[in-house]
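Changelog-adjacent note: as of this version, every example in the card shows the full chain rather than a window. The one below runs 109 residues end to end.
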Amino acid sequence: MARQFGDVLRDLGGGATYDELTAKLAELVEAVTETGKVGALSVSLKVKPNGANGVIVQTDIKSKIPEPARGDTVFFVTSGGSLVRQDPRQQDLPLRTVAGATPSERGIG
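Full-length structure tokens:
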């Protein structure tokens, strides 16, 4: 009877492959939970002959971790082509602080 796959997996790379898969799976589950998007984790095993009674097993681990959505940012373009957050065509309002006024006197609250 062949040895259990999980036992072989634990031996790959002296246990490093198993540890890496465990960490990647945890990262994937966390990202899927946070983003609500689909992710994937795959392991590929390539088995090559090594003499009359041996083989070499190579592993390839790939993951597709979903990225969180990034918000858009609005910029305005100056006449020189620079990007700025404040519209350069809009005038500044002459706002000032009224000294000694309470918030209710200033119309706040």
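Structural remarks: The radius of gyration is 30 Å.
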